[in-house]
Predict the structure.
Amino acid sequence: MRSKILILALVLLFSACSDDDDSENILMVKATVRLLAPPNGCDDYIIETENDNLLFPQNLDKEYLVDGLKVNIIYDLVEGVTHQCGRIGALPSIELLEIEKSNLSNAIARPNIHLKTKYMFLR
């Protein structure tokens, strides 16, 4: 009888533990805030990750609206939602879960000129 109760307790214990599928979409990365101006951009602030992915943050606070600002972010991809950004096209939308200014940020953030020329081929 004790072995049946022990087995039942173990089954209940392990069935209570589940994998959270949403946790796979949460990422922490170093990034840069960018202002993409028309005609190539969408006149919105976006996030450029250190591996050159462009993402549209749905909830970027005003204090981070600085072109060239280095940040560390934790975000969640918003599945099925994109933001149309001029000639660049549709950018994946993200929800920022955490954002902080990077220690590498300068007192005055300098825009990254290469981003403006990076998408010139899209004309």
Observations:
- DSSP finds two helices and five strands in the chain.
